[in-house]
Amino acid sequence: MSLSFDGRVVLVTGAGGGLGREYALAFAARGASVVVNDLGADTKGGGKSSAAADKVVEEIRAKGGKAVANYDSVEDGEKLIQSALDAFGRIDIVVNNAGILRDRSFVRTSDLDWDLIQRVHLRGSFLVSRAAWNHMKNQNFGRIIMTASAAGIYGNFGQANYSAAKLGMLGLANTLAIEGRKYNIHCNTIAPIAGSRLTETVMPPDLVASLKPEYVAPLVLWLCHEQCQENGGLFEVGAGWIGKLRWERSQGQILRQKSKPMTPEAVRDQWDEICDFTNATKPTTIQESLASFVNVLSQVESGGEVGANPVAAAASAASDTGINPTMAVGQKLPTSSFSYTHTQCILYALGVGMSTKDPDHLRFLYEGHPDFSCLPTFGVIPSQSSIMDGGLSSVPGLDIDFTRVLHGEQYLELYKPLPTSGELISEATVADVLDKGSGAVILLDVNTYSGKELVCYNQFSLFVVGAGGFGVKRNSDKAKPPLPPPNRAPDAVVIDSTTRDQAALYRLSGDWNPLHIDPSFAAMGGFKKPILHGLCSFGFAGRHVLKQFADNDPSRFKAIKVRFAKPVSPGQSLQTEMWKEGNRIHIQCKVKETGDVVLTGAYGGGLQSELVFAEIGRRIKDLGSELVKKVNAVFGWEITKDGKKAAQWTIDLKNGSGSLHKGPHNEKADVTITISDEDFMEVVKGNLMPQKAFFSGKLKMSGNIMLSQKLEVILKDYAKL
């Protein structure tokens, strides 16, 4: 399918000839409305004319395209953007292409030679991009192209002023790529080689004629298209060739010891090692760069030897596997927004096998039903979008082959029934990275909010085949562990048939992986035919539990954990076996026709209060010091179920930056609170005031009961559902 720019508005600076003209014509030919900017100056920045811009506009209009001319200097960036707004009502794409030359050897470069180049190239690109920024931010879309040069990347005799400005544009672009990422504003840099008024002064005429601008324009158009997710890239392009550049850094050497001076002689003596690019690293972010210095400080403080490598074996292994846990763990993915209506809820319900054949399913399939609800397992969909949108590829230390990523396990907690429409915001963090030998496991924690309220929490466990061997821990206390089912016959069994089109239907909820629809792609993965999404089987099992043990009431569904064991083929029947142990339902799912277990270690349910304490624990990690200042006390909690103690928690908001502990704790509580699981949830939801619960006997306290006044700080402000 050809790339279209229908409805997009593009500003190209310096578009009166050469590359700029080619960009303007190409965008217009594909449906864009184009602002053709050109001051009409000569190559040194002198003079002014409207002829160049007018001629390009005439060319575009003669072919049925839409274009207007602008004759302002790029130093008047606001005027350029206003031209786009006045003519077309918006601005989507900015191509910073305008430029001049004032070549001089360094010693002959005047202040004017230096300043004019910086003003046009670097300052002009800054002013035009800044003028467009808020418009792009508000519409959640923008694409910006910076035009660097080989002179900026490598240097070139007689172009000190030009080289400095061009590399400055790359630095500007890199920062805009970071700041714009969460607003879907992407900024990339090109270093083109093409025949133009500027290059004809430094290249032979026959070479200028061969390096046609139309060999550069296709890259610019792709980088500016909404389908392109490239951000922060640097590309050399010309003559029909495109290459991407990246930085490379030697492993380096540590040249000092604790409490000893570092000398220039030490630098001299290890110069060859400092400059040795064997097993070089390829940092892509400032965080990756700084990580090495942190390791150096740690190694020096621990008495490491002079000449040691700052990232030693870990860096060497990381260069082979593409995984560096030190860099990756704790990194946040770009915030993701998921807007939906009742249509998506119904489509998801159909995708996980619901049907009007079952009257109980109607509350999930008909928006006019008095109890119309969203299936609890729909909670994976908005959180999954934060990963599917390419956010994982932006994480430093996770340079992985995404064709080798398997979905290993899934955990979902619900803090309230999911709304049937609205906008949900998901914030994802790399919780941990584990080395399993044959591969790596990436744990992703995703919190999903409706407004400021936490709606659900997901933990994705992703297995990267062949990426192990980087030498860190195999297990993590941050992982939600699977649990084996009881060694007895199940309490309930539900058998449900999938259809041949089950995967085709489920993928409409947002998982577009061709593995589930394209036979040729499935064959590449070693499957005879497309397989069912693991999260589709997850949805089947979840709704089986919901019906069997919660009477299809989403408010009673609190959590579910599964491990994906084997694939399911669309058309096979799923057999969900369930065991009830207290408030927890153990789950195992099989393919009825083969007996293969496809979901293992699965369970759902548990105390409702566990979800709240889990959220309190997460908030303490983020805001512990603030809470300690406000509360300055240790709270003990005893949660009861059916009159018996079911769980014990300690919230320490007195020591350090705060902590949460399940079970007995050595820190003596200032006050101990006993309350049932059900009443605790009513307090948290704001339906029952703590003081009223105390006087009615639903909440019992021992110790300093005056601290009950602090409960609101903990429960209302930091664990509100």
Secondary-structure topology with pairs:
Layout: E1 9-12, H1 18-29, E2 33-37, H2 51-62, E3 66-70, H3 77-88, E4 93-96, H4 111-139, E5 142-147, H5 150-154, H6 160-180, E6 185-192, H7 205-210, H8 217-224, E7 234-238, E8 241-245, H9 264-269, H10 271-274, H11 286-301, H12 312-321, H13 325-328, E9 336-340, H14 342-351, H15 362-365, H16 380-388, E10 405-414, E11 422-435, E12 439-450, E13 453-465, E14 492-497, H17 502-506, H18 519-524, H19 534-550, E15 559-564, E16 573-581, E17 584-591, E18 597-605, H20 608-631, E19 633-641, E20 644-653, E21 659-662, E22 671-676, H21 677-684, H22 690-695, E23 699-703, H23 711-718
Parallel strand pairs: 1-2, 1-4, 2-3, 4-5, 5-6, 6-7, 19-22
Antiparallel strand pairs: 7-8, 9-11, 10-13, 10-15, 11-12, 12-13, 14-16, 15-18, 16-17, 17-18, 19-20, 20-21, 22-23
Helix pairs in contact: 1-8, 3-4, 4-6, 20-23
